[in-house]
Each structure stands twice: as structure tokens, then as C-alpha cells.
From TrEMBL:
<keyword id="KW-0812">Transmembrane</keyword>
<feature type="transmembrane region" description="Helical">
    <location>
        <begin position="74"/>
        <end position="93"/>
    </location>
</feature>
<keyword id="KW-0418">Kinase</keyword>
<dbReference type="GO" id="GO:0005886">
    <property type="term" value="C:plasma membrane"/>
</dbReference>
<feature type="transmembrane region" description="Helical">
    <location>
        <begin position="49"/>
        <end position="68"/>
    </location>
</feature>
<keyword id="KW-0808">Transferase</keyword>
<protein>
    <submittedName>
        <fullName>Histidine kinase</fullName>
    </submittedName>
</protein>
<feature type="transmembrane region" description="Helical">
    <location>
        <begin position="150"/>
        <end position="173"/>
    </location>
</feature>
<keyword id="KW-1133">Transmembrane helix</keyword>
<dbReference type="GO" id="GO:0046677">
    <property type="term" value="P:response to antibiotic"/>
</dbReference>
<dbReference type="InterPro" id="IPR052966">
    <property type="entry name" value="Beta-lactamase_Reg"/>
</dbReference>
<keyword id="KW-0472">Membrane</keyword>
<feature type="transmembrane region" description="Helical">
    <location>
        <begin position="193"/>
        <end position="213"/>
    </location>
</feature>
<dbReference type="GO" id="GO:0016301">
    <property type="term" value="F:kinase activity"/>
</dbReference>
Amino acid sequence: MALVVFLIAYVIRRHLDARNRLNGDALWRRFFHGRATVEAGRERDVRAGLLYVLLPAGVAGGLVYLAQSAGVRVALYPLELLVLVLLLGAPGWQSLMRAYSGAWSQGDMQAAWHQVQDRLPASERGAALSPEQMHMSVSRAFMLSVFERYFVVVFWYALGGIGAALMARGVLALAEHWPQVAARERYRGMARLVGWVPVRLLSCTFGIAGDFAGWSREIRKVFPGVGRTTRDVLMISANGSLTGYALDPERFSQLHPEQWPDFGERSLGAIRDLLNRSMLVWICAFALLVIAGVL
């Protein structure tokens, strides 16, 4: 039944994303900013943030355990579905990618940059970025957003149920939205731990969902890859799995200068399709584990 709940939540969430509805990040920001206060000099303290995440996750896990013990597990599935819909989702990217690709095809890189600048990390928002650098930053941001808001949630939901999924997504939200900036770096360390196994599992999935030969040449760079960031693992493995230099704009411009206006749309489309195929692989693996009685 957990698989059915997830599939329904996934379909609902994809429809909401396409319409740019119900932004989970906005909910996390309101949740943290409305309650989180710390004393002067304790801005790096992470205990308050962890309490805001671990307490709801513990309650969710406890409710599931009690319901299962009482034989009324089915009664919690509607609530579990609602929580999953809130945890999943990366709204806004579809319309943003259309606008970005349109500006790119017209050669208006300044307009393309204005479309995506709010989605880029603060260190990569410089207006002086070259088109190639800008596109790589957009690609990294897009893959990381989908990974954290879909694949991480799916992994921990399959592994530990709704409580684990809530905990994992909450830790990632702390790293982005906790009001005290000084504490975010410590939360980012926790976020890397939460995503360490899922991102490497996804990098392996890229080999199944994409070009296996190209992937096999690159994958050794990310295993074990202890010093690699999540962004690096995603970019390296995706680059090997994609054909047509979809993540190598400099090489593409050299080999196909006449097709350069179409590169932005083609590249982002290839990344999106790779992620969609990878999610299909995860869903199939989820189903097989359920059938086998493992989950």
C-alpha cells in the first residue's frame, strides 16, 4: 500500500508542479521563520532547528507504529498521502525553463540570466557569467532541486516510512531556510549525510536510464567520492550518461555552432528526460521490493 500512496502523491505533485502550485519551500520558510529565535551569541546552535524537524518526524513515525500495532494502519494513509504531497515537489521550474530556453534561442543571454538568477546559489549569480558558465549553473541548480525534492524523499520514504522522509526533507530545508545564516553551514553538513547514499544510488541509476558506455567511463570519479559534493556527483554522472554534449556547452558550440541557439532547450530537455527515466527506474525497483516482501 505504501507504493500506491507514493504513486498517487507523485502524480498529484507533478500536476501541481506543472501549475506552479503549493510551494513546499515557502511552507518550510514560514514554519521556521515564524518560530525560530535564538539568544545572541548562539546563532550557530543547531538544536532548535533539529527539534522543529525531528519532533514532527518522530510523531509521524510513532503514529504509524501505533496504527500498525492496532491493526488500523489503513486509517493513516490519507494523512500520509497529504504529507508526501507537501514534501515532494519542485514547482516553478517548468515555466522558468520555457522562458530561459526562449531567451537563449533568441541569443538574449541577459534575459536568460534574469529568468534564472533567483534559482542560482549566491556565489553563482554574477551578471558577468559567460553563457556556458550560466548554463552549467542552471543545470546544477535544476538537478539538485529535483534530487532533493523527489529522490531524497522517495529513498527515505521507502527505507523508513513517512517519518524518515519528513526528517530527511526537513534537514534539507534547514540547510536552505533556517533564519540564522551562521547555523546553515552545520545543517548543510547534515544535509550531505542525508543525501550521501541517495545521490550515489541515483548516479548508478543514470547508467541504466542513459548512455551506459559514457556513464561507465565517468562513474569511477564519484565512487566512493568522499570529497565530492552532491552537485559534483550529479553533474559528473549525468554528463557521462547524456549524449550529444548536453552538459558540455563549450564542446557543443565548437562542434555544432549552427545549432547553438537550440542548445539551452535541448540540454535542459535531455536532463529532464534523464531524471524522469531515473524516477521510473526507482519506482520499478520500489515495486519489485514490495512484491518480494522486502518493503
